[in-house]
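Revision sheet: structure tokens.
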Amino acid sequence: MSLRNIGHRLYQGEVSFDFVGKRKIWYSISAVIVLVAAVGLAMGLHLGIEFKGGSVYTVHKPGLSASQAKETADKIIGSKTALVQTTDKGDVRVQVSAQESIPATTFTKEFSQAIGVQEKDINAQVIGPSWGADISKKALTGLIVFMVLVTVYMAIAFEWRMAVAALVALVHDLLITIGVYALVGFEVTPGTVIGFLTILGYSLYDTVVVFDTVKENTRGITKQSRRTYSEAANHGLNQTLVRSINTTVVALLPVSALLFIGGGLLGAGTLNDISLALFIGLAAGAYSSICVATPLLAQLKEQAPEMKALAKRVAQRRASEAKAAAEAAARGEEPDSEQDAEDGVPAGMVGQRNQPTSRTRGKGRPSGKR
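Predicted:
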């Protein structure tokens, strides 16, 4: 069966996965993942020198490997804290924390002698701790402003329950991504912050697409008694399921190339800063929009008095349908609830039904025409 056929059947309601009804399972999975991420975050993030200050030395020498440069740098500073990466241009980038307290001129001189290059061939850049603190403050401010704007937009465009569900999904994605960064020990740079904001925007986009379909499916839902809000929301989620999966897979393909081929095979370490954030964030965003945001929205919405009344009417109707079906089965008759639904008569309602007019009813009678 093709994916297109599955998507059509999901949209028509012929096939349905009960994501909303099994929300406790998804909440448990998310809680475990977030807990592991929190443990990693408690261990501390590996902040780049842009945030904590230090020196960056970039040198171009054919044949110089990252391991050789790190061994040389560690000997000069007297510790193993030097971070060495290769750039996409083939240069070697050495980062030394401000805590090492070694002058840039001293490091440049000793490093150039050790690897056999001239001092002018080493580009030294010193970043003070105050500048790094200012960058950290701006990054945090940007994140907070983004969250506030998202909440206000969702509350205006949809409703406050959708805004809360979307915000929880965004925090969920952010915690997981940051936790993974802490666990794998990747360096957090300004590129990483850009990656964070990018994946939050993607997660919001995916959630809005699902919520828009849910909004259409639940418009005027209290005027009927065939299904509850959770069931209508779950149907909307299934309608957009294949679209969400396709969008995520297509987005992950180029990001995977950056992370595994560019950063892994080709050794372009600078690509890891943003590609890991994008890879984890895209996967977490797709999961949260399906398994966190929509089930949470349905749970919040079901607490409203009108939705509680709707759920009660749906339960009463289904009980009536079941009773009518049991009585019909006892009499050896076929239940006509499906036919009632097709004719516009609510299932379980007993009463006179309109019969089709017989073609021979008026045969032999005068038509009244002369």
